[in-house]
Design goal:
Number of strands: 0
Number of domains: 1
Strand content: under 5%
Largest sheet: none
Shape: globular
Order of helices and strands: HHHHH
Oligomer: single chain
Structural class: mainly alpha
Distance between the termini: 56 Å
Number of helices: 5
Helix content: 40-55%
């Protein structure tokens, strides 16, 4: 096989492997994202969530709510990637209404097998509640 043919075959193989994402699967759908031409929603850059809210969820929830954790079979499983997890978290909140949001209800101990992990007078509760207030309804 000639060198240019080998190089062409190698380039095709590398391009096809580089375009495949076998680890993550499709991007999660997000109520606040614009749908692209193929109908998939893009990952949303939400700096308040990434910088303020997600670290709280990691420190208070990820011990149990991770793959292989005690709550690893629930619909709230953190991967350690804020942008990937945001759509899953948004599905557990009622935009504009923190009190009606399942995320905060469970965190304060309501029907949560893990008990109360946050109180309503905690600054972390306020941070999450303010983020929820800032979300727009789908």
């Amino acid at each position: 096989m000639r060198f240019d043919r080998k190089l062409s075959v190698l380039a095709v193989c590398l391009c096809s492997l580089g375009c495949a994402d076998f680890h993550r699967g499709p991007a999660p759908r997000d109520a606040g994202a614009d749908a692209g031409a193929d109908g998939d929603a893009a990952l949303v850059a939400d700096w308040t969530f990434e910088i303020q809210v997600y670290p709280i969820l990691e420190s208070r929830c990820q011990g149990c709510h991770q793959g292989g954790g005690m709550a690893g079979s629930t619909r709230f499983v953190l991967t350690g990637n804020a942008r990937m997890d945001r759509a899953m978290v948004v599905a557990l909140v009622t935009p504009g209404d923190p009190g009606a949001s399942l995320l905060l209800q469970r965190a304060t101990g309501e029907a949560h097998a893990g008990g109360q992990v946050i109180t309503q007078d905690d600054t972390d509760y306020d941070t999450i509640a303010n983020w929820i207030l800032g979300l727009s309804a789908p």
